[in-house]
Amino acid sequence: MEPSAPLAAFHAMNDDDARAALLGVCASPDWAARMLAARPFASAEAAASLARELVEDLPDAEIFTALDGHPRIGERSGEASSSSEQAAVLASGEDFLERMRAANREYEEVFGHVYLVAAAGREPEELYRLLLARLGNTPDEELAVLREELGEINARRTAGLLAPAEATPTRDDLVEVSTHVLDTTTGRPAVGMAVELTGPGGRVASGVTDTDGRIPGFARVPAGRYTAVFATGDYFPDGLYPVVAITLDLTPGKVHLPLLLSPFAYSTYRGS
């Protein structure tokens, strides 16, 4: 299979230009050097997968160096990738941004570095709640989370660098996805359950069920095959299912996905 035009162009770059492009993805020189040494890549997907894997073996010092390339959540930056990833946050009102600034200060007092999170596809309030939850981590636990989040960011950015640009879908091409989780043992909404939607390129949306057990504006995505992953084990720790993963073929329009859940059974259907 012929490489995509962006991938072929990257392979044709001299080492200095290719290194500069990779440092635009991640500020760790060690990571960039390892990616550079792996050229040529079989595909943009293979490169994105390696981009994630290499983070697992980076020295701790390189993880912290990589943080230099990431602004605070809610902080405007001249860096295009960060601005795009944080678009929803930056469009939030001043009340939210002030709460986020205060939370950033608290996080940095605890850990001594910026709060890093894969912001793309996540709602601002979720990013805020995740920060507060991570304040309870030990330094070693937080370092492990940093690696996971940095790996996700690097994979997404590498795919964006090397994959061909996709045509922007029109409103009529998109699928609006919502979900609702009901605890059938009580007949009440399942509140506070984390849900992710993943596609061929990884996570495209995530959220947490509200007081009605719903995530109304969960995702708006192009048609295709996706998997909704419900963190049911956190809700029923002694239940049978640590997660419930439902794979869907989504077509343009509106799709509501209810999940009826008990510790040892679940069912789902296309709602309205």
From TrEMBL:
Q: Where do the Transthyretin/hydroxyisourate hydrolase domain residues begin and end?
A: 177-271
Instruction: Tell me the organism's taxonomic lineage.
Output: Bacteria, Bacillati, Actinomycetota, Actinomycetes, Mycobacteriales
Q: Please provide the Gene Ontology terms (biological process) for this protein.
A: purine nucleobase metabolic process; urate catabolic process
Q: What class of enzyme is it?
A: lyase
Record-annotated Oxo-4-hydroxy-4-carboxy-5-ureidoimidazoline decarboxylase domain positions = 12-157
Q: In which pathway does it act?
A: Purine metabolism; urate degradation; (S)-allantoin from urate: step 3/3
What superkingdom heads the lineage?
A: Bacteria
Record protein name field: 2-oxo-4-hydroxy-4-carboxy-5-ureidoimidazoline decarboxylase
Tell me the PROSITE patterns matching this sequence.
Answer: TRANSTHYRETIN_1
Q: What is its EC number?
A: 4.1.1.97
- Which reaction is recorded as catalysed by this protein? 5-hydroxy-2-oxo-4-ureido-2,5-dihydro-1H-imidazole-5-carboxylate + H(+) = (S)-allantoin + CO2
A molecular function (GO) term: 2-oxo-4-hydroxy-4-carboxy-5-ureidoimidazoline decarboxylase activity
Could you list this entry's UniProt keywords, alphabetically sorted.
Decarboxylase, Lyase, Purine metabolism
Q: Which organism is it from?
A: Gordonia iterans
Q: Which InterPro entries match?
A: OHCU_decarboxylase (IPR018020), OHCU_decarboxylase-2 (IPR017595), OHCU_decarboxylase_sf (IPR036778), Thyroxine_BS (IPR023418), Transthyretin/HIU_hydrolase_d (IPR023416), Transthyretin/HIU_hydrolase_sf (IPR036817)
